[in-house]
Amino acid sequence: MTKPNGVHHLAICTADIRTQIAFFTDVLGMELVALYWMHGVKGAWHGFLKLNDASSVAFVQTPAIGQIPIEIGKSHAGNAGAPSAAGTMQHVAFNVDTEEELLALRDRIRSRGVHVLGHIDHGFCKSIYFAGPENLSLEISTSEGQAIDQRAWIDPEVVGLAGISADELERFKHPAAYQRPSSPVPQPPLDAPGPKLVMPPAAYARAMSATDAETFARASETTPPVTVA
Asked: Residue 23 CB: number of other CB atoms within 10 A?
């Protein structure tokens, strides 16, 4: 089936990329693998902290980010059970493979002077909770290699409260397979009803009216900032 198979990177805005890098490397043991001028975004820095060879946490710093106020309950949830505005990240949970690794990370985080709540058993995973710089709400979880059993964890009461019909539920549980056609699918019309990136209207129209080949040629930047012998 054609679908994403993991998170390549999660990009988080920061007003202090040095502090975020220090926290994620020292407190969580992640490795800094990239730090460069963000492609196509004037004045922005991009830093990548490795989860594994195919997955990273990324931070983006621009001068404007530090001028945007943090408002708990709006821009940030503040903890993994609190609300924030629709479309914002409430919390992010990183994975470890075993409960032993989870407890070892709990001890590592506490050894750096950071409070940790848990661990807690949620049935399909066990988790710890803690805060990161700039009011990040963070979690580490383990399902110990066990897939979630949808038969046990899709609650009929919540399905009904969410307004999901029986037919919809079946579609959500078993998405239709997709076979890529022999020719690329054209861009939808500019007035198509789907969600849209927030950009100035003229810039959006230019970007979405360009051919894929034009976008690839114009926007791609493949040369790393450091030449490796």
From this structure: 21
Q: Where are the domains of the chain?
A: 148-177
Residue that has been written with the tokens 């043991």 in this structure: 29
Among 121, 163, 123, 136, residue whose Cα is nearest residue 28: 136
pLDDT tens digits for 178-211? 999 999 999 999 999 999 999 999 999 999 999 9
Query: With the CA atoms of 72, 77, 82 and 83 taken in that order, what torsion angle do they form, in degrees rounded to the nearest 10?
Result: 90
Question: Tens digit of pLDDT for each residue in 58-108?
Answer: 999 999 999 999 999 999 999 999 999 999 999 999 999 999 999 999 999
The SS3 assignment for 207 reads helix
Distance CA 25, CA 130 (A): 16
Contact 108, 102 (CB under 8 A): no
Angle at 40 between CA 38 and CA 42, to 5 degrees: 75
